Amino acid sequence: MKIKKPVGDRWKWESAQARRFCLAWISPATVLVFLIVAILSAGLVHTTHAQILGEYTETYTARLSPADHYNSNGVRLHSAAAIIRQDRANYYVYRIRDREDEPDSFFSIKSNRARMEQMLENGRATPDAVYKIVNETPLIRVDIYSTGINVTVVSD
Q: Which of 54, 66, 83, 88 could bond to 147 as cystine, CB 3.0-4.6 Å?
């Protein structure tokens, strides 16, 4: 028996027997194996990334206000790491704090703030998050690890 099947804007005749063969060839067990492999691979990538970052230290949230986008000399900052670093300097050194800023013990130390650029390079922030940090005033969450940080935009 042949059935009509749409292909783009035209119709094509297809054998029902050929369709049954294809469906039989891709059994539910095959689909399940592919699904399991995909899930395990994603888990291994996440675990490997966390191992590269080292041991988890702590998490804090901060609002990146307009004051955080300028250094202490009044020069506009253009990198996400520099803006986050300035936020921590404003919090600890200059006592310029936003209502949503939280303390952290790691970046309260000046030498740790100096490592911010390298830690973000070792860590993770999506291109969208980097854009929002540089061009907007988002609320961010920073997960600190021994060798890197993960930065997530919580809200605009």
A: 54
Token pair 């000399």 is at which residue? 73
The H or E element spanning position 36 is: helix 28-53
Burial class of residue 8 (count of CB atoms within 10 Å of its CB; 0-12, 13-18, 19+): exposed
| Residue type present at position 132 | K
Cα distance between residue 140 and residue 69, in whole Å: 14
Specify the DSSP class assigned to residue 124.
B
pLDDT tens digits, 71-111: 999 999 999 999 999 999 999 999 999 999 999 999 999 99
Q: Where are the domains of the chain?
A: 2-53, 56-155
Give this prediction's pTM: 0.69
The counts of H helices and E strands in the chain are: 6, 5
Q: How many CA atoms lie within 13 A of 34 on its CB side?
A: 6
Q: Which two tokens stand for residue 65?
A: 């206000």
Alpha carbon 131 to its chain centroid, in Å, reads 12
Q: Give the residue from 69, 63, 129 showing the smallest Cα distance to 101.
A: 63
- Tell me: pLDDT of 21 over 60: no
